[in-house]
Amino acid sequence: MIVSRALALGHSVLVLGAVVTPALVVEHAGDRGGLRAPGDADLIVASVAVGVPAAVLAWRRLHPPASRWQSRTDVWIAALTSFGVLAGAASALPAVVLHATTGLAALDADAGWRVPAVWAGSQLAAVAAGEATHRAVLRWLAR
């Protein structure tokens, strides 16, 4: 029981890391390029706001009482598959969305809240893609 809880906790930490790491990379690149203003951590805050609920959801999916209707192996296969989708989408979606909207006047530097909002929205889409993958794989394995 302790091992399964520790594994579930480790998986949820990985999920949080997959959501927050792209923001840390962008912030670090801004530091190295000289573009970061002091006290500017809006992308990190937006990522943590999305990542913490995603990590809690991942932990609840793998917590032992939550998976009593499915095989433990099936639950872990679905969790690892959904983690792969989440990690890929969490790093690719914000870059694609922000690149696609660079020409829009709505995302200019004067409206500082819009970029973190777009970032958080794309991270939410990545979490939703991971969750949909988890459910689809569980359904497929149950057949």
Describe this structure in a few short sentences:
It contains 4 helices and no strands.
What does the radius of gyration come to? 17 Å
Order of helices and strands: HHHH
Catalogue the unreliable spans: none
* Percentage of residues assigned to helices: over 70%
Major β-sheet profile:
none
Quaternary organisation: single chain
Specify the overall morphology: elongated
Average pLDDT: 84
Keywords: Membrane, Transmembrane, Transmembrane helix
Protein name: Integral membrane protein
Task: Describe the overall structure.
The protein has helices at residues 2-33, 42-62, 72-100, 114-142. The protein has 143 residues and is mainly α. The protein has one domain (2-142). Helix 1 runs antiparallel to helix 2 and helix 2 packs parallel to helix 4 (114-142). The longest helix is centred in the N-terminal third of the chain and has 32 residues, at 2-33. It comes from Blastococcus colisei. The chain crosses the membrane at residues 41-59, 75-97. Keywords: Membrane, Transmembrane, Transmembrane helix. This is Integral membrane protein.
List the keywords:
143 residues, elongated, single chain, mainly alpha, Integral membrane protein, membrane, transmembrane
Topology, pairings included?
Elements: H1 2-33, H2 42-62, H3 72-100, H4 114-142
Helix pairs in contact: 1-2, 1-3, 2-4, 3-4
